[in-house]
Amino acid sequence: MSGHSTDSSLRESAQQRGRCGFMMLRLGFAWSTSSATTKHIAQARLSTGSLLRKNSPRTLYNNWCSGLPKALQFGQKSVLASTRLFWDSSRSSGVIFFSMASGSNGPDRSKTPKHTNRLSKEKSSYLLQHAHNPVDWYPWGQEAFDKAKSEDKPIFLSVGYSTCHWCHVMERESFEDEEIGKILSKNFVCIKVDREERPDVDKVYMTFVQATSGGGGWPMSVWLTPDLRPFIGGTYFPPRDSGRRPGLKTVLLRIIEQWQSNRETLESSGERVLEALRKGTEISASPGETLPSSPDVANRCYQQLAHSYEEEYGGFREAPKFPSPVNLMFLMSFWAVNRASSEGAEALRMVLHTLRMMALGGIHDHVAQGFHRYSTDSSWHVPHFEKMLYDQGQLAVAYITAYQVSGECLLADVARDVLLYVSRDLSDKSGGFYSAEDADSFPTVESTEKREGAFCVWTAGEIRELLPDIVKGATGAITQANIFMHHYGVKEQGNVDPAQDPHGELQGQNVLIVRYSVELTAAHFGISVDRLSELLSDARAKLAEVRRARPPPHLDTKMLASWNGLMLSGFARVGAMLGDKALLERAERAACFLREHLWDEEGQRILHSCYRGDNMEVEQAASPIAGFLDDYAFVVCGLLDLFEATQRVHWLQWAEELQLRQDQLFWDSQGSGYFCSDPSDPTLLLALKQDQDGAEPSANSVSAMNLLRLSHLTGRQDWIQRSQQLLTAFSDKLIKVPVALPDMVRSVMAQHYTLKQIVICGQPDAEDTASLISCVNSLFLPHK
User: Do 218 and 19 touch, CB atoms closer than 8 A?
Assistant: First the structure.
């Protein structure tokens, strides 16, 4: 499972892609969820700009519910308690936790599909997963819109992504159900959206769901009028009623009844919220407003992060724990300008401790490298096993930056480790990077039911069988298995706390976690540290070989410009810091891929996505999706990092061209800042500007720094002014809740301290020139 959420001042949730729907419907439907059926607890947050400063989620939700027909309220007063919502008001961010529903196991994969719908013609892995549902699915597009208008039917919009556990659950339980499929197909125009393919659509309707429910997540379920206006929304629905909890069938039948008998009330209640959202989500600079004070904003951001910091294992908040690279990068920048203060020293301590604990924990794949999405517990032990490309790119940068600061070899090793995983498992032969690996897989080739983590976990018996050799020189008759199990916390009965495994999927299994330092383990068995390192390395290689023979998890081979931009930065920054030509060559291959496959030369625009076809060649959709703000901002940042790593001017030139195009497409000439998507698109009801750095940084945060860097590299003073205008537009949140935008705070700091230009004169290929460049790359200079 994986989760995303909301909070009344932050929006790490729906943007954070911590991923996947938790049982959190609100809508006025009341039910209770037993904690015994909770798979994991997902962190949730919400922000809809000034709207949520004027109206709390509870107030807006109650106002919306009061306008709904009574038949759709289902015990409105008890909804907060019955979804087991826990509001932590003691922290500035306001965290909401939701219990989630239980899932079911998958179908027999040997069955021949009984149904095939039009999604079978799509490229998206997520849409293709639904191509054989008994539901008359449409992709998002004019054909579906025209059908809804001509038949005057409401639209059922279902949004998810291919590696989302709860999306899989809802498909198995509801969308493969013949009866529910008939109800949906007969009474609604059913549209399925891959949120990674259409983040613009996802953001608009997630904003509605968050504002009317106090939370959000995937799968997202929203009902729209034929002109695309939402009137009811939620996340995961069980198929049928359970106690006081209504199932999807009941919800559908009541919506049908109300659409026929009380349509005007449905439409008006949704329109009121939509109008409030239009006003509440507006972000703009007021006349005469100036940049907020950098020291004040940075200090407040530091204090808010320190308040939520968890001392024992690092990270922010107890559980679930997300890596949050944006927080770590801010803290290192804060340290760089406050080195002599106790606050600066504490900021660095928080970063290094967090990164060490993550590297030792189960969130880090010790056998096949890379990082899982998040930890379900406070000690980074039991993860949600999904792996996302955007995490790998940002964590590679965070680890190599921490190595620059500390010189600690472990941190550089982890950065290399991440890039090894991406090069091996998420790389296309074209040079592009795939999006994600799923959490669920079949335990054996004979299995018909997928389990979360099956690809990654081990029994003690498996370890003993794989590592039976007696270790010469060790104290007593010790096998390699004894040493490995001791070091990685492997237990005979399994090392997963039942509280982290309510469905018993990990019963008797072990998630590897480093329990001792190599010095302690070596001393325990009476061997040298070097000998221990050899034994552990050999053991991990043997386990990796066995894992390769297991049924692999689903690989989402969609290639996104935005996430490829983040990964480009990872390879460029690590390659430059370590002086590794192979990593820099891989970075250049990625940049060439972006130019060849995701740049429309004729239309002078970035394309959002492309796909690996059946013949292993890169393919494009019949109607390519134009790039969004994230695509431009993240690619420009990657190109600037690549230029600084290679000194090849053509990458800087392309970055400059892309920035100019981004300004033309997304800049708000009235209120400043960039819109997330094309503001002229008539199918998008809200023109949004992302105001939180979550699992991915806000594209506005990245753009503020891009503009500043480009202005110094190209001499364009207007880009310094544009960067300042952008930051001014977000000044309200930067002043009040800077922890929501730590990456943007770094840009405020860069404006204050000004960038220092370093010029190296010499022959490009000369040894002394390379030495000077290497010297610069070895230092952490956030404002260079």
Answer: yes
The pLDDT mean for the chain works out to 87
Closest alpha carbon to 214 in 461, 471, 491, 11: 11
CA atoms within 13 Å, Cβ hemisphere of 479: 10
Residues 6+ apart with CB under 8 A from 59: none
186-232 pLDDT, tens digit each = 999 999 999 999 999 999 999 999 998 878 899 999 999 999 999 99
Q: How far apart are CA 784 and CA 781, in angstroms?
A: 6
Please report which helix (H) or strand (E) contains residue 257, including its range.
helix 248-261
Residues in the chain: 784
What percentage of the chain has pLDDT greater than the value 90? 79
Mean pLDDT of 411-429: 98
Give Dmax (Cα) for the chain: 82
Q: Are 72 and 132 in contact (CB under 8 A)?
A: no
Amino acid at 404: Q
Triad 595, 610, 589: Cα angle to 5°: 40
Q: What is the dihedral of CA 35, 39, 40, 43, to 10 degrees?
A: -90
Is the pLDDT confidence value at 665 over 80?
yes
Tokens of 741: 């935008």
Cα–Cα distance for residue pair 274/357, rounded to 1 Å: 43
C-alpha separations of 152 from 64, 252, 368 in Å: 24, 16, 52
- Cα–Cα distances (Å) from 530 to 147, 379, 489, 517, 616, in that order, read 69, 28, 20, 13, 42
d(CA 390, CA 566): 6
Tally of CB atoms within 10 A around 32: 14
Cα distance between residue 638 and residue 641, in whole Å: 5
Query: Do the beta carbons of residue 23 and residue 235 sit within 8 Å?
Result: yes
What is the DSSP track for 135-176?
A: S-EEESSHHHHHHHHHHT--EEEEEE-TT-HHHHHHIIIIIT
Percentage of the residues of the chain whose pLDDT score is greater than 70: 86
Sheet with 618-619, strands from edge to edge, namely 558-560, 609-612, 618-619
pLDDT digits (tens, 9 = 90+) for 125-147: 999 999 999 999 999 999 999 99
Given a cut of 80, whether residue 18 has pLDDT beyond it is no
CB 511 within 8 A of CB 495: yes
Rg (CA), the chain: 26
Residues 669 and 673: their CA atoms lie apart, in Å, by 8
- Spatial separation of the C-alpha atoms in residues 732 and 730, rounded to whole Å: 6
Question: How far apart, in Å, are the Cα atoms of 292 and each of 51, 665, 669?
Answer: 21, 27, 21
CA–CA separation, 685 vs 397, rounded Å?
Answer: 36
